[in-house]
Amino acid sequence: MAEWLSNQIFGKPPTIKDLTRENDKAVRKAGREIEKDRRVLEREEKKLEAEIKKAAKENDKDACTILAKQLVALRKQKTRSYAANTKRYQKCLDDVTPYTVGRWIGAGVLTLFFLARVFILQGWYIVTYALGIYHLNLFIAFLSPKIDPALEFEDDAGPGLPTKANEEFRPFIRRLPEFKFWYSVMKSTTFATFFTFFDCFNVPVFWPILHMFKYKYLPFTHGKPRYQGHEDSGKVINAK
């Protein structure tokens, strides 16, 4: 802030970087104030609810009416505070949208951290399985077109050149955009990592699979013991 004021006093115009930095500081400060106000509002809401219950037990209708109006006004203020937090969160998402490579590097690091934790602790296989299936579905939706060409040309003999002015070429539109794909991966991996801190989510997997791994009667030859019989001497014994 001091640098920005000195630039204003001495006539040096602020750069875009300076303005962005000051804007981010103001947003963070407003976010801290909003979070503080939200906690205060929650405490006041619980206090009013307790007073309303107490007045209802005493059959004090006037006090109940006044307290109910205060509670309604407080909840409206709480809703406005929640909307402000939502806008701040959306602004953070908008700020990271252009940085595609950095976003996916962060997602990869988070996924590797989750896999390393599962490998070291030897547990939470159900969570890992569910996360893998969910990521696979996201990847399929990312590769799939939003409009199925088979349905688009169902009544026609096949794809052809446009014959009308409004039948211009349309680019490939994904069913799941890249940013939503990244956001879903980050959110699901964060939840999965959070689950690994609680033993209640460490559900044992299907026991026959564990039995197969333990005694190595798998449908694969790798890792199995090999048995070798005695060599044939070639001698023939005639029975009398």
Give a verbal description of the structure.
- This protein has eight helices and no strands.
- The chain has helices at residues 2-9, 16-57, 61-96, 100-121, 125-143, 149-152, 178-195, 207-215.
- 66% of the residues lie in helices and 0% in strands.
- The chain has 240 residues and is mainly α.
- The radius of gyration is 32 Å and the shape is extended.
- The termini are far apart.
- Helix 2 packs antiparallel against helix 3 (61-96), helix 4 packs parallel to helix 7 (178-195) and helix 5 (125-143) runs antiparallel to helix 7.
Question: What is the average of the pLDDT values?
Answer: 74
Count the DSSP helices.
8
How would a textbook summarize the main sheet? none
Helix fraction?
55-70%
Name the beta content range.
under 5%
Catalogue the unreliable spans: none
Radius of gyration equals 32 Å
Task: Provide the descriptors you would attach to this structure in a database record.
240 residues, 66% helix, coiled coil, mainly alpha, Rer1, 8 helices, transmembrane
